[in-house]
Design a protein that fits this description.
Blueprint lengths: L2 H16 L3 H11 L5 H9 L3 H8 L9 H20 L3 H12 L7 H9 L18 H18 L16 H15 L66 H6 L18 H8 L19 H4 L9 H5 L27 E7 L4 E6 L6 E6 L4 E5 L4 E6 L11 H9 L5 E6 L5 E6 L3 E7 L5 E8 L5 E7 L6 E6 L3 E6 L5 E6 L5 E9 L2 E8 L3 E6 L9 E2 L5 E6 L6 E6 L5 E7 L4 E5 L13 E4 L3 E6 L2 E6 L5 E5 L11 E3 L5 E5 L4 E6 L1 H15 L34 E3 L5 E3 L11 H5 L4 E3 L6 E4 L9 E6 L5 E6 L3 E6 L18 E2 L8 E2 L13 E4 L5 E5 L4 E5 L5 E5 L6 E6 L6 E6 L3 E6 L4 E7 L5 E7 L4 E6 L3 E6 L5 E6 L15 E4 L5 E6 L2 E6 L4 E7 L7 E6 L5 E6 L4 E5 L4 E5 L15 E6 L7 E5 L4 E5 L33
Parallel strand pairs: 31-57
Antiparallel strand pairs: 1-28, 2-3, 3-4, 4-5, 6-7, 7-8, 8-9, 10-11, 11-12, 12-13, 14-15, 15-16, 16-17, 18-19, 19-20, 20-21, 22-23, 23-24, 24-25, 26-27, 27-28, 29-30, 32-60, 33-34, 34-35, 35-36, 35-37, 38-39, 39-40, 40-41, 42-43, 43-44, 44-45, 46-47, 47-48, 48-49, 50-51, 51-52, 52-53, 54-55, ...
Helix pairs in contact: 1-2, 3-8, 5-6, 5-8
Organism: Liquidambar formosana (Formosan gum)
InterPro entries: CTLH_C, LisH, Quinoprotein_ADH-like_sf, Topless_fam, Topless_Znf, TPL_SMU1_LisH-like, TPR1-like_2nd, WD40/YVTN_repeat-like_dom_sf
Keywords: Repeat, Repressor, WD repeat
């Protein structure tokens, strides 16, 4: 079968899956043999559908194809046999033995005899080898792990375990593009052609009136992506394709819209694109060019793909198995974990007395027990729901009366009160916004405990401000507001400067819902007349004009994974509707039953876990499964709810806040939530956890041990942390703040750890040559550690997920495996003609842990982390690369620090250096991106920090480190940088000091200078929640600091290293776990890698210094001893 025919099969598979032809999908997978759906295979095995399991496997392999296949079939049939024996179904067991297992007797007769003897036992567990056999469910799960390894190792499954990276509804898009071209080639194109069939080519009939408008002024489609030099790696690769102008999202809405500014061909998506782009493409109708950079490659383009070029990708890249289990189709929106209604939070565990009627609530995106509340009299509050404590309370107050408009001043003179319509946390939880019923929006910055600071006051609209939301257009955090003046406005979240105003609604705007598909950012808005519109950030007008069901006041929300769109609203007559939309067609996909016909007020709703919907209606909370239109269940929360209560899930979906009729709030949980509360309460009872948590904003008190809470799913993105190695990772939950009672603080002293019994440590097993470790990083999943050694070899340790270790995360309680692919190859950087003593090794890990980009003084190499194969090399020295960092918004772009002191901004997809930044005097040794400030910070061996704008790459600021008097650093001493999770404060690491700077001004807020007796600082890193800083020293010790540079614990080398008088061993690099704040890893001079954690009884590193209790000190720089911040 030709490559195009093969690709067509994948397009058909995607189409069938999107249309829910589930049986047909799997039949085509099997009959074509192109894609082995591991998820379907797992489900079939788990359900014991043995006939279907073997039938599906038969499309890809037979029993005697190779030893892997034989082992796969043997394990399946053996399990089937054992289950029959376990049920004491002797007849069935004999049948399986004769029909299914007999075939293996010719290969291992002794084994077959032993299996046969099991028939004679009353319980086959009497056999020593089967004595640990548990129940059927666990046995199948254990077998599945083995089967997956066998399938991954089986060469017959190579390139069949990963579905190609396709945009949603790719086949429909191609058909729509074809219809557009056909229509452009019509001799008499009509303005609104009637396309009724795909069976024959489209042609317009003879014109009955004027010709259609010129394609230049009436674009029918977006621009075709620019021709590139080689194909993108796809969704799982580190280099994403450049955003195409066409998107399926909302395309059908525009095609069906009655008032779209530019008429579209019926049934053909127009795409969210600026008209001039389309115009440039349609000036001369022609056949689309062969485009190797597009998703669908033609046969003619294959020679282009194989052409040698500096960054030519091999065909293997597109077919590489990256994340084999579980596999879902791109756009497969309904592949989710199986939940039951028991997973819903329905148990009331907390009652909070707010004091006034609750209008809006929002759980913190990181600290999942923190609830923000706004009321009908303008009060805001931040609650720690697990401790039932109101941490912050503010009444309505205008901050600057002089800046108010005359209209607002007149309104306030008449009635100095305002109701709150919406409260919402920013994606990283450092800010929150409040929309009031009178003109203004308040932005606060939250620093933990009761530390709430005024950030921005914006007079956003004339009259009522109905809603607000956060988004990231143009790579900057923005606030979106809407209001009574019928407009939507976009504001810079840092400066408060207005960026866009969208006019077009004919009634007051009720709600906004920002989102993005691929790299296209857009906003849905709804008005009180039931009109829905969509906008791009381009001031080109609305792209959609559509009616909500029942012409109702409507709010819209996406599922947590961003693939499904829902709306809920109530009409003037009180009839409520909750529906799911088909975005590609702009039509209601399903309407859910069970909402009242005479609702009092507008019904509010929320989504969770990509699976459930909840709405407050008829004095209860109503729940739906997203895939079932019928009501799943209801909860009255033990009574006391208003007719249309306000409801809000936390990110994990284990807590649900609901407003009550007596001006209170009830917190409902499921079993996981109950366990969470008990864990926190136990810690509070033991005096180890304070009531107020610390949020990730810089300057809050340090965190320590607490309940480890994973980040759940909500559609709002989480800010990234730019690590010392240039990696970006999602924020974990921040742990509750530790506090000491006043008496304890008076006798506080630095915790010294000297003995192995005072610490949990693990030296990672290593069968390779022990060579000093120069770079170290955890994978973003937290389940593996990657090291780069002096001899340019990478070592990867993986922790396995099993019954004893369910999380699969790195831990000191279980040794990982030094992982190598079956080929036995090593990931080794290109080092020909390289003097390793002069080289500065560097690497950067892709966000999905599938690829690593690395250099050791030679060319930059791109490795596949599954196979260890070198996918490509590029940029040969001189100059050599000395630091690598992926651009946070575009994985096609990397920042490369160079030996010659320059920084190159390089687009790997088009093999082009976009900018060359010059500001350092010596080699560049650190790079860190800030999403919030839209800047790149660089550091060099010249002990200088530079700030560069990500828009034009101009230098904004620079500053030399403050080298302590009398200290002379090495000529090429490295300086590294890492952003705090608030993305505005920066950790700078030098052999003489660690220091905190505020960006972009580079004001030094704190400095800690090392004592010469402990040797130079070799490395340092923030913990994952930015509440601790780990620093390693030349004497082998590790210091654990608070976020304000107070040392709280020192770990001496005797605690984790065996005595070795003849060998001086110390850590060169340190890496923090991405989701466990109290775990870190060290890379040593002897080649060892050690993972360190506090003991389970301690749960944290040391205790907080006295000044750290309470709200914490300011970050003003001050003098101190060498062991205190300067």
């Amino acid at each position: 079968m030709s490559s195009l025919s093969r690709e067509l099969v994948f397009l058909i598979l995607q189409f069938l899956d999107e249309e829910k032809f589930k049986e047909t999908v799997h039949k085509l997978e099997k009959e074509s043999g192109f894609f082995f759906n591991m998820r379907y295979f797992e489900d079939s095995v788990t359900n014991g559908e043995w006939d279907e399991v073997e039938k599906y496997l038969s499309g890809f392999t037979k029993v005697d194809d190779n030893r892997y296949s034989m082992k796969i079939f043997f394990e399946i049939r053996k399990q089937k046999y054992l289950e029959a024996l376990d049920k004491h179904d002797q007849a069935r067991a004999v049948e399986i033995l004769v029909k299914d297992l007999k075939v293996f007797s010719s290969f291992n007769e002794e084994l077959f005899k032993e299996i046969t003897l099991l028939l004679t036992l009353g319980n086959f567990r009497e056999n020593d080898q089967l004595s640990k056999y548990g129940d059927t469910k666990s046995a199948r799960a254990i077998m599945l792990v083995e089967l997956k390894k066998l399938i991954e190792a089986n060469p017959l499954f190579r390139d069949k375990l990963q579905f190609p990276s396709l945009k949603n509804s790719r086949l429909r898009t191609l058909i729509n593009q074809s219809l557009n071209w056909q229509h452009q080639l019509c001799k008499n194109p009509r303005a609104n052609p009637d396309i009724k069939t795909l069976f024959v080519d489209h042609t317009c009939g003879q014109p009955n009136g004027g010709r259609a408008p010129s394609p230049v002024t009436n674009p029918l489609m977006g621009s075709v992506p620019k021709v590139g030099g080689f194909p993108p790696l796809g969704a799982h690769g580190p280099f994403q394709p450049a955003p195409a102008a066409i998107t399926n999202s909302l395309a059908g809405w525009m095609a069906n819209s009655s008032s779209v500014p530019h008429q579209a061909v019926s049934a053909v998506p127009m795409g969210l694109t600026a008209p001039n782009n389309a115009a440039s493409m349609l000036k001369r109708p022609r056949t689309p060019p062969n485009n190797p950079a597009m998703d669908y490659q033609t046969a003619d383009s294959e020679h282009v793909l194989k052409r040698s070029r500096p960054f030519g990708m091999s065909d293997e890249v597109n077919n590489m198995a990256v994340n084999i289990s579980p596999v879902t189709y791109p756009g497969q929106s309904h592949a989710h974990t199986i939940y039951s209604s028991d997973d819903l939070p329905k148990t009331v565990v907390v009652n909070l007395n707010q004091g006034s009627a609750v209008k809006s609530m929002d759980f913190h995106p990181v600290q999942q027990t923190l609830l923000l509340v706004g009321t009908n009299i303008g009060d805001i509050a931040v609650w720690e729901v697990s401790g039932r404590e109101k941490l912050v309370h503010r009444n309505f107050k205008v901050w600057d009366h002089g800046a108010c408009s005359a209209a607002l001043q007149a309104s306030l003179a008449t009635d100095y009160t305002a109701s709150i319509n919406r409260v919402m946390w920013s994606p990283d939880g450092a800010l929150f916004g409040v929309a009031y019923s009178k003109h203004i929006v308040h932005m606060y910055s939250y620093h933990g405990g009761d530390d709430l600071r005024n950030h921005l006051e914006i007079e956003a609209h004339v009259g009522n401000v109905s809603d607000l939301a956060f988004s990231h257009p143009n790579k900057q955090l923005s606030i979106i507001t809407c209001g009574e003046d019928k407009t939507i406005k976009v504001w810079d979240a840092v400066t408060g400067v207005k960026q866009y105003t969208f006019d077009g609604h004919e009634a007051p705007v009720y709600s906004v819902c920002p989102h993005h598909k691929e790299n296209i950012q857009f906003i849905f808005s709804t008005a009180i007349d039931g009109k829905i519109k969509a906008w791009l950030y381009d001031n080109m007008g609305s792209r959609v004009d559509y009616d909500a069901p029942g012409h109702s006041c409507t709010t819209m929300a996406y599922s947590a994974d961003g693939t499904r769109l829902f709306s809920c609203g109530t009409s003037k007559e009180g009839e409520s509707h909750i529906v799911e939309w088909n975005e590609s067609e702009g039509a209601v996909k399903r309407s859910y039953h069970g909402l009242g016909k005479r609702s009092a007020g507008v019904v509010q709703f929320d989504t969770t876990k990509n699976r459930f919907l909840a709405a407050g209606d008829d004095f209860v909370i109503k729940f739906w499964d997203m895939d079932n239109v019928n009501l799943l269940t209801t909860s009255d929360a033990d009574g006391g709810l208003p007719a249309s209560p306000c409801v809000r899930f936390n990110k994990e979906g284990i807590l649900l806040a609901v407003s009550t009729s007596d001006n209170g709030i009830k917190i409902l949980t499921n079993a996981d939530g109950v366990r969470l509360f008990r864990s926190i309460e136990n810690r509070i009872a033991s005096g180890t956890v304070a009531k107020g948590p610390v949020i990730g904003t810089f300057g809050a008190s340090s965190s320590a041990a607490g309940t480890s809470i994973g980040v759940g799913d909500r559609s709002a993105p989480v800010m990234a942390i730019s690590g010392l190695n240039g990696d970006n990772r999602s924020l974990p939950d921040v742990k509750p703040r530790i506090t000491d009672e006043s008496e304890k603080s008076k006798i506080w002293k630095l915790s010294e750890i000297n003995e192995p019994s005072q610490i949990r440590s693990l030296k990672l097993p290593d069968g390779l040559l022990a060579v000093r470790v120069l770079r170290l990083i955890y994978t973003n999943s937290g389940s593996a550690i990657l090291a780069l050694t002096y001899n340019a070899v990478h070592k990867l340790w993986k922790w396995q997920r099993n019954e004893r270790h369910l999380t699969g995360k790195a831990t000191t309680s279980l040794a990982p495996q030094l992982w190598q692919p079956s080929s036995g190859i090593l990931m080794t950087n290109e080092i020909s003609e390289t003097n390793l003593e002069d080289a500065v090794p560097c690497f950067a890990l892709s966000k999905n842990d599938s690829y690593v980009m690395s250099a050791s003084g030679g060319k930059i190499s791109l490795f596949n982390m599954m196979t260890f194969k070198t996918m490509t090399t590029f940029m040969p020295p001189p100059p050599a690369a000395t630091f690598l960092a992926f651009h946070p918004q575009d994985n096609n772009i990397i920042a490369i620090g160079m030996e010659d002191s320059s920084i190159q901004i390089y687009n790997v997809r088009i093999d082009e250096v976009k900018s060359k930044l010059k500001g350092h005097q010596k080699r560049v040794t650190g790079l860190a991106f800030s999403n919030v400030l839209n800047v790149l910070v660089s550091s060099g061996a010249d002990a200088q920090l530079c700030v560069w704008s990500m828009d034009g790459w101009e230098k904004q600021a620079s500053k030399l480190l403050q080298i302590p008097p009398g200290r002379v650093p090495a000529p090429l001493a490295q300086t590294r940088v890492q952003f705090h999770q608030d993305q505005t404060h920066l950790l700078a690491v030098h052999e003489t000091q660690i220091a905190i700077y505020e960006v972009p001004k580079l004001e030094c807020l704190k400095q800690w200078v090392s004592q010469e007796s402990s040797g130079s600082i070799t490395d340092a890193s923030y913990s994952c929640d930015s509440q601790l800083i780990y620093a390693s020293f030349e004497d082998g010790s590790v210091g654990v600091f608070t976020a304000t540079l107070k040392m709280r614990c020192r770990i001496n080398p005797t605690a984790y290293l065996p005595p070795s008088p003849s060998l001086r061993v110390y850590p060169l690099v340190i890496a923090a776990h991405p989701s466990e704040p109290n775990q870190f890893a060290l890379g040593l001079t002897d080649g060892g890698v050690h993972v360190l954690e506090p003991t389970e009884s301690d749960g944290k590193w040391g205790t907080i210094p006295p000044l750290e209790n309470g709200a914490g000190p300011s970050l003003a720089s001050g003098a101190g001893s060498d062991q205190q911040p300067r």
